[in-house]
């Protein structure tokens, strides 16, 4: 069985001076000596405090959490397992063994910590709770898997499985992208209940709920192109068709009731309906091709 020496605790940071020492110390107390802090250019002393607490510290070459994670795994981690956490003290180092157990037992390639299993008062605003629920439901609907908390920053994965993922997100979209890629690559994912705590006083979040939530929804939709083409093309096709029909109803009503013709609107209506039907047909065809492709891969195994 792998021990703590086969695990690298990865902590992306950006101005986390208020919490970084305690977070690094907590993982070291759990027996994890290999703690890697990848810093995005903090100006509050985060790097110095992390190093003093016993972490290995590097400064990332680019910007954003996603880029930090990719660079760390690609260039600075040799351990078999990676435990990814935030440096804001919201996650409990004591949950690390449970997060790593499915990897060590060979049950999973990727583990997601479910914050909603034990979320403490004040850890998440009502707006964030609603946004998280909507995003998780959208993910389950679009990609066909319910991982319960795809935005969780507490992850554990094998380095080998991570290298199989095609990741490009720069910021907080990295969690969503990893979840989508796990579905696409047919990786085994296990969800583990964890504790989620409020940020300590004096620790400010780098997350912007409206902006980052919008980015995550767009990422979910964009990734549906290859995972669920029927939804990707069908949703736009349905909107275009319904819009065209509504315009057609208005044109027809105005012509019958008042004798007023709307030639341009009639053309727009016809174009919308035709475009919508074509997109729906393309979505069905693409979905059939994807299904056949997956069946052939399954037969090949």
Automatic annotation (TrEMBL):
Keywords: Glycosyltransferase, Membrane, Transferase, Transmembrane, Transmembrane helix. Residues 8-164 form the Glycosyltransferase 2-like domain. It comes from the Archaea. GO terms for molecular function: glycosyltransferase activity. It comes from Halopenitus persicus. PANTHER family: RFBJ PROTEIN (PTHR48090:SF7), UNDECAPRENYL-PHOSPHATE 4-DEOXY-4-FORMAMIDO-L-ARABINOSE TRANSFERASE-RELATED (PTHR48090). The keyword ATP-binding does not apply. The chain crosses the membrane at residues 230-252, 264-286. This is Dolichol-phosphate mannosyltransferase. InterPro entries: GCTrfase_AglJ, Glyco_trans_2-like, Glycosyltransferase_2, Nucleotide-diphossugar_trans.
């Amino acid at each position: 069985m792998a021990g703590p020496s086969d695990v690298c605790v990865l902590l992306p940071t950006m101005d986390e001076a208020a919490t970084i020492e305690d977070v690094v110390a907590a993982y070291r107390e759990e027996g994890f000596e290999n703690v890697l802090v990848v810093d995005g250019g903090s100006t509050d002393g985060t790097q110095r405090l992390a190093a003093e607490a016993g972490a290995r510290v590097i400064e990332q070459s680019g910007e954003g959490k996603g880029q930090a994670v990719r660079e760390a795994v690609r260039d600075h981690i040799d351990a078999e397992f990676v435990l990814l956490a935030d440096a804001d003290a919201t996650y409990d180092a004591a949950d690390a063994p449970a997060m790593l157990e499915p990897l060590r037992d060979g049950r999973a390639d990727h583990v997601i910590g479910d914050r909603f299993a034990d979320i403490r008062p004040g850890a998440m605003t009502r707006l964030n709770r609603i946004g998280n629920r909507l995003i998780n439901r959208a993910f389950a609907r679009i990609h066909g898997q319910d991982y319960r908390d795809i935005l969780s920053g507490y992850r554990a994965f094998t380095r080998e499985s991570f290298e199989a993922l095609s990741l490009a997100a720069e910021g907080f979209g990295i969690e969503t992208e990893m979840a989508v890629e796990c579905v696409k690559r047919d990786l085994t994912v296990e969800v583990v209940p964890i504790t989620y705590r409020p940020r300590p006083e004096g620790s400010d979040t780098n997350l912007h709920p409206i902006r980052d939530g919008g980015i995550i929804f767009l990422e979910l939709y964009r990734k549906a192109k290859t995972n669920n083409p029927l939804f990707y093309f069908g949703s736009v096709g349905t909107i275009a068709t319904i819009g065209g029909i509504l315009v057609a109803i208005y044109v027809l009503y105005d012509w019958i009731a008042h004798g007023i013709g709307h030639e341009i609107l009639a053309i727009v209506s016809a174009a919308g309906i035709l475009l919508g039907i074509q997109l729906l047909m393309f979505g069905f065809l693409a979905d059939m091709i994807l299904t056949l492709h997956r069946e052939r891969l399954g037969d090949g195994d």
